[in-house]
Design goal:
MetI-like fold
Length: 313
Amino acid sequence: MTTLRALPSETTAPAADRRALRRNNRAGWLFISPALLVLLALTVAPTLYLLVSSFRRVDLFGGESGFVGFANFGAVLTDPEILSSLLTTLVFVAVAVSAEMLLGLGLAIPLSAKVRGSGPAAALMLLPFAVAPAVSALLFRQLVNPNYGWVNHYLGALGIVPADLDWLARPATAWLTVLGLDIWQWTPFVALILMAGLQSLSPEPLEAAAIDGASAWQAFRHVTLPMLTPFLGIALVLRTIQAFKTFDSFQVLTRGGPGNSTEIVNLAVYRVALQSFRIGAAAAVGLLLLVLLLTLTPLLLRLIGRQGDDEEA
């Protein structure tokens, strides 16, 4: 009878092997230390600075500063303009991400079919979100220009809108512009994630559903959609986080206008920090937004998981 021998661990290995293992560990930490330092400098250090500044009165020009406790949070939570910008952000994220998830799923279904042309089409979908958001916003600003923009030219020729319509001068049309830009830019991102998910699904459950007489809609709703739940969760969380970080397109297109109808929370942080020079208050807004995202992300994942379980049941 053959006896299996356990592999030597660090505690049971000979002394020479333990020394070699420790040298390898030190070498590994040495090699990854530059990446760790960059990570600390770009993520951990700014977060700590944000946390400390939110409890202090900080002057951008080096004037009087000091510990003020929760005064910055109290000022932020009672500021009607900041609360309005937070509500505007929530509306924008809800509408934009919902539209992108639905349109992305609609695009992913035909693209996931392994037919001629699906590969080049998927490659072309990389272009919108490969362009910098500020550049995309500048492009959209020219397209909706009331004097020479293509949108007014063609829609005016069809009689849909007045030829001299200033899209960015009215709250409703300004919202249509920023939402259209965001949906155009990020729907392909969602579609590619879901396309990869659809292509990775096992075909056996769908074949069994077809044998049982399920229609295409029934097979999609009760078989494909539950199996696609993890990919839906990934796309939803990534797009929600990215949507909360949106700044460039609003700053270039509307700057929060007309009035403050499109002022999202990131524009409010910019205004408070770099126009009013209230760094402590701006840090408090940023910290509250971080807490909101940390709370919202697990809820979204739990919601997607529960819907997947209900579909499977």
